[in-house]
Specification:
This protein has an 8-stranded mixed sheet with strand order 1-4-7-10-13-16-18-19. It has 4 helices and 19 strands. Helices cover about 20% and strands about 25% of the residues. It is of the alpha/beta class. The protein folds into 2 domains: about 100 residues, UDP N-Acetylglucosamine Acyltransferase, domain 1 (3 Solenoid), CATH 2.160.10; about 55 residues, Udp N-acetylglucosamine O-acyltransferase, Domain 2 (Up-down Bundle), CATH 1.20.1180.10.
Length: about 200
């Protein structure tokens, strides 16, 4: 447990994972600095697969959120009430999960993305976007979140253009990635988008 953390009542932190393969091996739940854990939150420790569940710094876990075994939670993430992560989920930095969001095991959500409340995440969500719906779909870039974090108009416009190619154009997704790589400047943000999509194992929403 890091410094300046606040834990409210009725929480379960670091208990054994809810995984039938768990055989009592010594594993950890690691929590960073300035983490707020509200009422009835559950955080399970890891299994032999990864060895730990890890929560970054400046994270807010609202009431009744659940983080399963072997999850990795990035800095400045917010999980609203009843948000639930299956095992081996990875959340980037500044991810915001609305109330009641369910994330399938082994799912990945990219940094600065916002998931609308009450929806299921069964495929990977790339960085910098808003996603919602059933099935989950692209709802635009996370303009407000990016503005708050100092992303310039030019950078936001570039991110928007990349996702217009990928989600909105009539190109197939392989061709869209080729177009992003060939036509857009290789900024940190564009590289992050391409790397996330190309490394996805569950597929992109």
């Amino acid at each position: 447990m890091g410094s300046n953390c606040t834990i409210y009542h009725n929480c379960s932190i670091g208990e054994a994972p809810q995984d039938l393969k768990y055989a009592g091996e010594k594993t950890q739940a690691i929590i960073g600095d300035n983490v707020i854990i509200r009422e009835s939150v559950t955080v399970n420790r890891g299994t032999i697969a990864y060895g730990k569940t890890e929560i970054g710094n400046n994270v807010l876990l609202m009431a009744c959120a659940h983080i399963a075994h072997d999850c990795i939670i990035g800095n400045h993430t917010i999980m609203a009430n009843l948000a639930t992560l299956g095992g081996h989920v990875e959340l980037g930095e500044y991810v915001n999960l609305g109330g009641g969001v369910l994330v399938h095991q082994f799912g990945k959500i990219g940094s600065h993305s916002f998931i609308g409340g009450g929806y299921r995440v069964v495929q990977d969500v790339p960085p910098f976007i808003i996603a919602a719906g059933e099935p989950m779909r692209f709802g635009g870039i996370n303009k407000i979140g990016l503005q708050r974090r100092g992303y310039s108009d030019e950078t936001r416009s570039l991110i928007k253009k990349a996702y217009r190619y990928y989600f909105i154009s009539k190109m197939n997704r392989s061709d869209a990635i080729k177009k992003i790589k060939s036509e857009l400047p290789a900024t940190d943000e564009i590289n992050a988008i391409v790397q996330f999509i190309e490394s996805s194992e569950r597929g992109i929403i």
